[in-house]
Amino acid sequence: MSGITKSFGGVTVLDDVTFSVRPGEVVALLGSNGAGKSTLMKILTGVYQRDAGRIAIDGDEVVMATPRQARAHGISFLPQEISIVPEMSVAENICLGAVPMRSTLGVRTVDDQAMRLRAADILGQLGFGHISPRRFAADLTVAERRIVEIARALAADASILVMDEPTASLTEQEAEMIFRIIRRLKEQHTSVVYISHYLKEVFVIADRIEILRDGRNAGSFVPGETTVASVVEAMLGAAAGDLFVAGQAPLARPEAILSADHLGLRNSLRDVSLTVGRGEIVGVFGLVGSGVEVLGRVIFGAEGGRHQGAMRFAGRPYAPSGPAAAKRTGIGFVSAERKKDGIIADLTVRENLVAPFQWRYGRGVFTSWQKETAQSVAWIKALGIRTRGPEQEMRTLSGGNQQKVCVARWLDPSVKMLILEEPTRGVDVGARREIYLQLAALARDGLGILVLSSDVEEVAGLSDRALVIDRGRIVGEFPRGTDPATLMAATTGEMAAPAIGGIAP
Amino acid sequence: MSASATPPNRTFGGLAHSRSAAGVLILLGFYIVLLVAFSFLTPFFMTLRNVLAISSNVAFIGLMAAAGTPLIIAGGLDLSVAAIAGLTGVLIAVMHAAGVPVWVAVLAAVLLAAAIGLANGALATGLKLNPLIVTLASMSIVSGSALILTGGLTKPLSIAGFNWIGAGRVFSIPVPAILMLLTYVVLAVLLRQTRFGRYVYAVGGSEETSRLIGLPVKPVQISLYVISAVSGAVAGTMLAAMLGAAAPNAASPHLLTVIAAIILGGTSLQGGRGSVWGTLVAVLILGTLNNGLTLLDVSSFWQDVTRGVVLILAVGVDQIRQRLQSR
């Protein structure tokens, strides 16, 4: 692709961008949100049409007017949200694009056996022959679904795979499986375009790193010959510095705002005890399935009070009947699933910001646009939310800015503790850093902060105190300054420090 | 606090609310085209009498559509509303025949409707049953009960004071039209100017998010079912008063028009978007279409076809508009 230019309604999104990938090459495409990555890939895969420039495959200029044409040229796009049909078998999912048929007494029917063989063959090539083609997709883990999706692309004879955040909701071990597949694909001369926010993954898997910034090419790197810092600098346009706030002197153990004793929830949590102090950031690190995804919800009352154990908040017994009760007690909650249960996409930024404490910004039962706007503008400024204004629709904000809204709306005087699940999932590096700075500042103002995350660097860098959860139990507690590898090692599971852990700068 | 701090109303009941305003304006444009077309086609159309006739004919449909709009915005649905209207008329007639003062009968019918709405809401939100199924079932129960009460017959209901609600006029404007407009103004203010209204949009936009930020999701949804059912009772009262008789299935054929008007008015069946003003213009369009085609002597069978086509056109245009916006 060369000289690619694209604008939407007068705004230039891509300006003279060049991008290439050789057979069997893995190219990582990086850039902050809004840098033009997804637009470039949508042009490559026929979703959008370019305004100028040319696309050539094996030297021949090609037309990509529709996604179908792009697939015919062997280009396959794997979006961040996994798109498989849960009600179908693995074999049916893999052969969805080209279903093998046979003729019985002149009636054409689906050839189930041929389909299973083809699926088994492709899975075998990928090194995952143990996934049975007969299984239902609904029963697969997230990682296995991702593998099935890759197999489907190969079943349709893809020679270039564009993967958008393929490891987004995977654990590090599972991510390693995806890397194994990508290496196999390389051996078979299949090319991969890899879009990711996880820089260390990129350094492990990519042959070349291409950076976009503000719709232009902003650098090309070879992982072995560069550092994470210079890549981040190219992405952000200025020296980024450290992602985290420099380690403060550890506080004396602060007064506890929340204490939880022997929490349990069916098969997810067992005997979890923890405290969060005023002004303290407590991080809980756990891989997916460890209980890290329900712990915050149990404390916030979002699991409907079906848990065992007792809690105290601000010195009083605390047993929330639901999120509304938790909110009244003084707890805020930021969900990991921003699109699903974090934002209200159709409402404006202002309406999203004031929603939890609506009654503060009105007169009696009536709302007040003036009061809401004044508060919104203040929060937009305080957290550096990049928006055209409080009336912008929430859906049109980038992930990082949506996340800032989700944090800002809990900054009410009545809130004494904030629970955040995966606070920077799907957030670009720039906004990520801003969110970390904000959380540190809020803790300095006395807010208790509980972070639950499957991102080990996040927990290590952010927490005053880091807990590690594995199979529903707390398996370790570490002070500020503990390095990520130690936290990772505390999860029992497999290897102490996975291969990619060693690459971190 | 002080009078000087009273802010100017930025929007009147949210009519100028940017998102829905564009859709309502397009609809309004279409309505005007329709008016102009009909007034060229038939000289009877643009007479004051005919315009007032339209307004009084659409009033009971408009009332139910008005109350159904916030319910659908909040992610619910009420198919029982027209059946409740039928039952209400019948109940009033039966109670009146048994010697109950008519206004007491009206009050009792409204209370019964509220109870039905409460049951609808409790089943749909408390037990998390699909509102389509819940209200389909209650529609069947309610219209069945109305038939049982009357043995399927139409009951006369001719009481001077009572009939005024359906046939009376104030400054030559039909009383039903006035009641309908009042309902729209009240609901528009409720939706756009009150905390409750904001919760309606929030719950419809994302029920899970609303729950996790501690909003009263179920109370909001249940009260909308009650409002919808009560609107059915008021519409049924109005219809019986207008006709001077109560038929168990008087309103049932109009259920589709009620839902069609809400959707045509730009309210999303997925919830989260919509406005009562859009519904009002849609009610007027559908009513005018009926009236105009009748004046042009088009068979009422064709009118059903036309309504379907208009609905598909409207939804199609809205889809295209949304796709253009999301680009």
Task: Explain this structure.
The complex is a heterodimer of chains A (505) and B (327). Chain A has 505 residues and is α/β, with parallel strands linked by helices. Chain A has 2 domains: 2-236, P-loop containing nucleotide triphosphate hydrolases (Rossmann fold, 3-Layer(aba) Sandwich); 256-503, Rossmann fold (3-Layer(aba) Sandwich), CATH 3.40.50.300. Helix content of chain A is 32%, strand content 25%. In chain A, the strands form 7 sheets. A 6-stranded mixed β-sheet of chain A has the order 7-10-11-3-12-13, with helices on both faces. In chain A, strands 19-22-23-16-24-25 form a 6-stranded mixed β-sheet, sandwiched between helices. The N and C termini of chain B lie far apart (44 Å). Chain B is mainly α. In chain B, α2 packs parallel to α7 (175-193) and α4 (102-126) packs antiparallel against α5. Helices cover 73% and strands 2% of the residues of chain B. A two-stranded antiparallel sheet of chain B has the order 1-4. In chain B, strands 2-3 form a two-stranded antiparallel ribbon.
